[in-house]
């Protein structure tokens, strides 16, 4: 929308968007998944560091790049399957994602959050002194 901030009745689109009948409606995806006993979680767009599945893909891609280069389709398929199977189930990457979320909540930008997440790999959350450490490391 290109409406003024806080406007609720400036155009037909905004009026309909704010009607109670439309505000709390579940998507077809949510309805179908919930009927089958699954919970749907919507993650922020363009923040792959907070998405566990993207983290697993990243792990698998790193492993895949370590295989010898080949152009045979059977080898390519085998290597992809091996790389996907290599992702350890116990490393679901939730702690890494949590460190990024903690960094964003503290006001860090993407570069700062990546640096802090790498530095504090063994921690669930970032320390209180993170802003001072970023200044000392000249990470803007």
Automatic annotation (TrEMBL):
Q: Which domain of life is it from?
A: Eukaryota
The record's GO molecular-function terms, alphabetically, read: nucleic acid binding
Question: InterPro entries of this UniProt entry?
Answer: RNaseH_sf
What is the name listed in the Swiss-Prot or TrEMBL entry for this protein?
Tc1-like transposase DDE domain-containing protein
Q: Which organism is it from?
A: Piloderma croceum (strain F 1598)
């Amino acid at each position: 929308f290109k409406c003024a901030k806080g406007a609720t009745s400036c155009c037909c689109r905004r009026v309909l968007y704010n009607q109670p009948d439309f505000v709390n409606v579940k998507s077809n995806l949510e309805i179908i998944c919930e009927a089958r006993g699954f919970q749907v979680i919507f993650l922020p767009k363009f923040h792959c560091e907070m998405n566990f599945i993207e983290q697993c893909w990243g792990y698998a891609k790193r492993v895949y790049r370590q295989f010898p280069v080949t152009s045979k389709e059977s080898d390519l398929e085998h290597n992809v399957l091996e790389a996907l199977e290599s992702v350890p189930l116990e490393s679901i990457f939730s702690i890494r994602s949590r460190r990024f979320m903690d960094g964003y909540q503290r006001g860090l930008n993407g570069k700062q959050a990546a640096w802090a997440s790498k530095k504090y790999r063994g921690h669930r959350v970032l320390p209180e002194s993170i802003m001072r450490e970023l200044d000392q490391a000249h990470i803007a």
